[in-house]
Amino acid sequence: MNRKYRKTVIAGNWKMNKTPSETKEFMAELKSIMPKGRWCDVALCVPAVCIPTAVRTMRETRVGIGGENCNANPSGAYTGEIAANMLTDAGCKYVIIGHSERRAMGETDADVNAKIKAAMAAELIPIVCVGESLEQREANVTNDWITLQIKMALNGIPEEKIRKIIVAYEPIWAIGTGRTATPEQAEEVCEHIRTVIRKLFGAKIARAVSILYGGSMNEKNAFELLAQPDIDGGLIGGASLVPEKFVKIIEAANQPTI
Length: 258
Ligand code: 13P
Description:
- Helices cover about 40% and strands about 15% of the residues.
- The protein contains 12 helices and 8 strands.
- The chain has helices at about 20-35, 50-55, 85-90, 100-105, 110-120, 135-140, 140-155, 160, 185-200, 205-210, 220-225, 245-250; strands spanning about 10-15, 40-45, 65, 95, 125-130, 165-170, 210-215, 235.
- It has an 8-stranded parallel barrel with strand order 1-2-3-4-5-6-7-8, surrounded by 5 helices.
- Strand 7 (about 210-215), helix 11 and strand 8 (about 235) form a beta-alpha-beta unit.
- Helix 1 (about 20-35) runs parallel beside helix 2, helix 5 (about 110-120) crosses helix 7 and helix 7 packs across helix 9 (about 185-200).
- The site of 1,3-dihydroxyacetonephosphate has 14 residues, from strand 8.
């Protein structure tokens, strides 16, 4: 982390977990144990049907609510889809874009790029996910792959908007597997992502972008991961479903930075 230049962000991704009733219970518990300090921004990205409950219950708190996906189009005949401005109107501040689980369902780099543009037009903060498979890591193409994903994702986005984007590095082999990247592995790629952004948009902007790590981050390994200079927070799946664990990760972000 480096709080001098950029925000620390601890974000949960509930994926397809919790009903609206369970959301209400979770939020009540979270509120009662939420740390008072403001050393980081906190986000919870929840299933679409849970958004109204999450927004209502967390209104007076510092926890920002987000969607887990949006459609690139502003409206129209896209049965089952949700437009970015619908998320904004429902009270969302964030939206996850390009999660590997959605890419596995057919989402392309071009889709990711269009969705980021749609999200920003609706004044949402996109949390843009990139990450390599185990096969790619073993073939030593991780950095090439990540470069491509970042370049495609950020293509055509005006410079002044880049600093508002949050990037999440999520190695696919570490998601939901309990096999966390080591702090060194995670730092290496997060640093690489910053270098790619620096080459595209300059040092000032690269320095300002928050880059998160995701993939089996939990209350035990968070401190060490967050201590890395280019890891500005976490995108947390499983551990964000348990208030005590999520709070411990928020607390782990309370450490001195350079
Ligand atoms: P886990 O924390 O469950 O590994 O999930 C990570 C993730 O995919 C967050 O988007």
